[in-house]
Amino acid sequence: MIVYEFKVKGAQIQYRRIDEAIRTAQFVRNKCLRYWMDNRGVSRAILYRYNTQLRTEFPFVESLNSHACQASVERCWSAIARFYDNCKKQVPGQKGVEPRDDDSPKGRRTKRGYPRFKKHSRSLEYKTSGWKLSEDRKRITFTDGKEIGKLKLIGSRDLNFYQLSQIKRVRLVKRADGYYCQFCIQVDVTIESTPTQKVVGIDLGLNYFIADSQGNSEPAPQFYRKAEKQLSRANRKKSKKYRKGALPQSRNYHKARNRYARKHLRVSRQREEYCKRLAYSAIQSHDLVAYEDLNVKGLVRNRHLAKSISDAGWSTFRKWLEYFGRKYGKATVAVPPHYTSQNCSNCGQVVKKSLSVRTHICSHCGYVADRDVNAALNILQRGLTTVGHTGSLYAWGDLPSSSVGESLLGYGES
Ligand SMILES: [Zn+2]
Questions:
Q1: pLDDT band with cut points at 50, 70 and 90 for residue 354
Q2: I need a labelling partner for 200 at 20 to 30 A (CA). Which of 212, 235, 355, 371 fits?
Q3: Contact, 141 vs 132, CB < 8 A?
Q4: How far away, in angstroms, is 360 Cα from ligand 1 center?
């Protein structure tokens, strides 16, 4: 599954109708979630049936394409399934009490990823109906009851290269700087790439962004740090215009809010591009890439490191690594991160060292290497021994194709 994205151009009224369609999809999702919370244990099939009932009950739901409604049910279901999954796996760092109802404090509900209601959805998904591409495939028309109509597609990608039947999903996404349309295209064969006979282990670090087992390292980009001044300035301006208790907020407030959001968008795009490029080259030049299975959320809770870690964009990097791995038929392996930096990659003995010690010097076999290179070598060894174990192997078609696309929504959409 590959994803092509275009910016769309239309009239103001069309944008308002997209907003309305997104709200409807959100309504369906939240309704289904509520239904599941009230009737624990209901199956996906029952949620589908409930969706049909919603369509007869509410005309504004009826007017949204029926498959788009179904896609909303599926989104709700994937949140529920993820929650069940986390409970079963006892996700580390997320242990906690069984959440109470939705009126409990925010933090408690999120334990183990308890599904939450969406308040500000920014996207909507159509399947294979409810839209039509123009002859030259430079325009798309949405044909359902939401009357979004014809939108111009702006972007450098060429949709003519693919069969219409390969387009499995069409998404409309709202961002701070406009509206976008994504096409999820099914590509059955993984693209042939010549085997390189090379394997690599990657260590995610703070002093470097990544260091690999061949001794190469890539400096941390720190986009956020660089943009920080501008961001906080924009944030201050926004706060000044916020009127407590005044609803709705002024036009100037919303303008300032949008300016702030655009700046964030810019930073996240820079990071996205950077990670994408790194991941692409790692996949292109190796047959197997091993990396640490880090619980980034757990790590970010350490306040002193938080900013650098989030900024490093590890999870973004990993997402693209797995994406390109699937696309080019390469193996990507996430290995448990324990002691990767403490063990000696040469003899396997434990060599204790604090975070500030940058060089690994083994007192048992005399092996000397950079700390991160040693860790990357350990990761690679672990990766090579786990290939074939389904538990930790994220290779080929393990994940449902829809989850790939969903994670590529990016830019803050969960
Ligand atoms: Zn040693």
A1: confident
A2: 355
A3: yes
A4: 9
Q: What is the pLDDT of residues 160-169, one digit of tens each?
A: 888 899 999 9
Q: Structure tokens of 63? A: 């007017």
Alpha carbon of 370 to ligand 1 centroid (Å): 13
pLDDT digits (tens, 9 = 90+) for 257-314: 999 999 999 988 998 899 999 999 999 888 889 988 876 666 666 666 666 666 667 8
Give the distance (Å) from ligand 1 centre to CA of residue 377: 12
What phi and psi, each to the nearest 5 degrees, are found at residue 23?
A: -60, -40
Q: For residue 27, give both structure tokens.
A: 């309504």
From the CA of 73, how far away is ligand 1's center (Å)? Answer: 54
Task: Check: CB of residue 152 under 8 Å from CB of residue 159.
Answer: no
Among the residue ranges 44-48, 197-201, 392-396, the one predicted with the least confidence is 392-396
Q: Which two tokens stand for residue 281?
A: 């080259």
Residue 297: its pLDDT value, please? 62
Q: State in Å: Cα 346 to ligand 1 middle.
A: 5
Q: Which has more pLDDT, 132 or 302? A: 132
Kindly state the average pLDDT of the residues 224-244: 89
3-state secondary structure of 204: strand
| Architecture of the domain spanning 199-220+268-413 | 2-Layer Sandwich (3.30)
Question: If we measure between CA atoms, which residue out of 221, 204, 207, 206 comes closest to residue 376?
Answer: 204
| CB proximity list for 282: less than 8 A, separation 6 or greater | 200, 202, 212, 289, 321
The residues spanned by each domain of the chain are 2-185, 199-220+268-413
Q: What is the pLDDT of residue 316?
A: 86
Q: Which tokens go with 241?
A: 């215009």
- The span from the CA of 280 to the CA of 285, in Å, is 9
Cα of 368 vs centre of ligand 1, distance in Å, is 8
CA 113 to ligand 1 centroid distance, Å: 41
Task: Name the one residue in this structure whose structure tokens are 């969960």.
Answer: 414
Quote the ligand 1 centre to 374 CA distance (angstroms): 10
Question: Cα(373) to centroid of ligand 1, in Å?
Answer: 14
Kindly compute the dihedral angle of the four CA atoms of residues 223, 228, 229, 234, in this order, to the nearest 10 degrees: 110
- Global pTM? 0.74
> In whole numbers, what is the pLDDT of the chain averaged over residues?
82
Taking the centre of ligand 1 as the mean of its atom positions, its distance from the CA of residue 364, in whole angstroms, is 5
Comparison of pLDDT for 308 and 96, the residue scoring more = 308
